[in-house]
Amino acid sequence: MELHKIPTAIHQGGQLRRSAVVKIIEGTRQEFERMTAPGRLLALHHLFLLAEPGARGKAGGRRKDLWAAIKRIEAKGGVLWELYTGRRSDDPKHRDEMIEEAIEALTRGRHKYRSDDRRAGRPRREWPKDVLEHNEKVWNSRHHQNWSVCEKHFIGGMTGNDAWKQWGKRNKD
To answer: Which residue in 2, 43, 136, 144 has its CB near the most CB atoms, within 10 A?
Structure first.
């Protein structure tokens, strides 16, 4: 059963340094390993994709499975090229960094699939300058006894919690 496909080579404008991609093939990890030959460059988008998702429940899990796949490929003389970072396994420094990041991604469960991936969750809200100036005056005014009174005079949809995060304690002066 095929659990995921591994794109073995993706042309990403100008990142095809020191090599020429002959074929672009999508297939299973077993097919990827079968293509390995001495000196052959095997490109994949992320190294952590070599780890079989079904290995999660086994002893050692996906990290052990990833290490085993890397060892099998390198034993046959293949060179891994991670397109996301541009690192290759024929450079020892890049190899170590590439494997370390893949292991960490599998450990933490946060896999970045694109370079423009951002943190999960809602982005921080930003208010226009005029709204911030008005609301800061209201927040620091001694005419308002508490947060709920301040909130009634805020503009732009700001709440008391938002004001606390923005300026801290009320009536500091």
So the answer is: 43
Read off the pLDDT of residues 3-53 as tens digits, 9 standing for 90 and up: 333 343 333 333 444 445 556 666 677 887 888 888 888 888 788 888 877
Q: 26, 7 in Cβ contact below 8 A? A: yes
**Alpha carbon distance 71, 12 (integer Å):** 27
Contact 9, 24 (CB under 8 A): yes
Token couple for 116? 């423009």
Range of the domain at 153: 129-167
Nearest in space to 67 (alpha carbons), one of 119, 103, 25, 116: 103
Long-range CB contacts (< 8 A, 24+ apart) of 103-108? Answer: 103/63, 103/66, 105/46, 105/48, 106/48, 106/51, 106/61, 106/62, 106/63, 106/66, 107/63
Give yes or no: residues 142 and 92 share one domain.
no
Same domain as 91, residue 30: yes
**Claim to verify: residue 141 and residue 90 sit in the same structural domain:** no
The pTM of this model reads 0.52
Count of alpha carbons within 13 Å of 167, Cβ hemisphere only? 20
Give me the number of domains the chain comprises. Answer: 2
